[in-house]
Amino acid sequence: MKRTLNINIGNSLIHIEEDAYEMLTGYLNEIKSHFAKNADDFEIVTDIENRIAEMFAEILSAQHKAAISITDVQQVITQMGTVRDFESSEDEEHPFSMPYSQGIKRLYRDTEKGMVAGVCAGLGHYLNIEERWIRLFALLSTLVGGAGFIAYLVMWIIVPRAQTRSEKMYMKGEAINLQGFIRNFQEEMENSNLLRRSGGIIAEFADWFGRFINGTGKVIFKITAGFIILMSSGMLLAAIVTLASFLGVFDYAGNEIFPLSMVNDSYVSLLLLSAFVVIAVPLLALILFSIRVAFNGRQIHKNVSFGLLILWLAGIATGVFFIAKTSTEFKEHTEITKVSNLKSYPVYTLDLDNSRVFSKEDSLLYHINNENSKGWVILDEREGPFGKPDDVRIYIERSLDATNSVTQNFASHGKTFDAALKNAQSIRYDFQQKDSVLTFGPKLRLTNQAKWRNQEVKLIVRVPVGTHLIINRDLDHYLAGYRSWNCGDSHEGDFVEWIMTENGLKCKNELKEEDHQDQ
């Protein structure tokens, strides 16, 4: 059994074998002798000892052993380099001009080069971009929407400041060895001299603002994080309730509203689940991050983060797949035309009937019966965020053969021509003539539980020249090319009178004004 010792190096207690300790002592004595001529030798040697202590701790943890062996010390010396290697390089050229040896990069704030908190300078080191371009981007994003300022404050709190020499070397991606330490020390001395020469009120303000951020600013961010937790949790709960409603947990026909009304029943549930995942995963990630900020919690485990990312990407991929599949249901287009003659009258009244007639199928779907719906009048809602797109258009044209007629054109899309034809045949539209009154329905209806495939109804009313049309203002939403507010001074009442002329439909008041001007 080899004799072991307990030593204190870099403020860390290390268990080391005796022969390994002798080799380490000789190595450290060489380093101390080399830097003895430097006024800041203690700081350099302390930084080197701290790095060696970190490497010993990593070895003990990785190999699951209790003591450092001579092999471990040799490995550390090989990685750090010896004084003889450093002196030979120093003889050839000044160490400050030696090329950098690349190491592992970590994100830190560079307060020595930073103008405020060193966030932009630290990002510049990490991304290999000059800090002035990072600062310019941060300034522009702050001026445009304020996002740059918020991101800067968040990174000020989250990203640690490079304090030790090892952290500064990690920040720049320098190899952690003797050459790297002396190079970093020389650069630090140069930068500190520049800082002392520049000084000024900006540095003082940055120092005060830094203390504010680390004190009062942290409290503000904790309160903000708590507010974000409450808001995100509420939104996540709302998403869960909405998903349950659409999946039929509650007595709610969510699949009947647009745009879900265009999705086939065979995969609407999967599409809803994918949409829920795409919305819920970012909310959950925001909640977990805010909890960490508010309560100084531990960082989310990488497996959890990767799991959420994979789940979110799977939700996006599933949603894109079914959206693309739904889009194939609109490849073909078909139209059906029906022409009907109208009873001839010199004056027609065009009216809108918002009441809806329910079929037996509708009554079963909406649970309508004589007991609970007696005396009800159901009105169609054409507006709303989830209403279907406008599907009824009315055109009024001059008849070329002096007959009165209405042409109903039913159009639809489908995956195939037969499917499009079937979808067009499923259209039901309420139009009727009662004496001289032409009544139009506000929307078309679909029978046989047909899905929305951009079904449309186009009505063309043709009347001879001289026919008077008294049009309800409510039809403005459906008329193509005519609006009641264009009809002279006719701003009162629910109806506006128009007259068919050789040049098309004209407002009666407009014709009176033209006749008055001619006289």
From TrEMBL:
Keywords: Cell membrane, Membrane, Transmembrane, Transmembrane helix. It comes from the Bacteria. Its main location: membrane. Residues 201-330 form the PspC-related transmembrane region domain. Residues 105-161 form the Phage shock protein PspC N-terminal domain. The chain crosses the membrane at residues 133-159, 219-247, 267-291, 303-324. InterPro entries: Phageshock_PspC_N, PspC, PspC-rel_TM, PspC-rel_ToastRack. It is a single-pass membrane protein. It is found in: Cell membrane. GO terms for cellular component: plasma membrane. It holds the Pfam family Toast-rack_PspC-Cterm. Residues 379-510 form the PspC-related ToastRack domain. This is Phage shock protein C (PspC) family protein. It comes from Pedobacter nutrimenti.
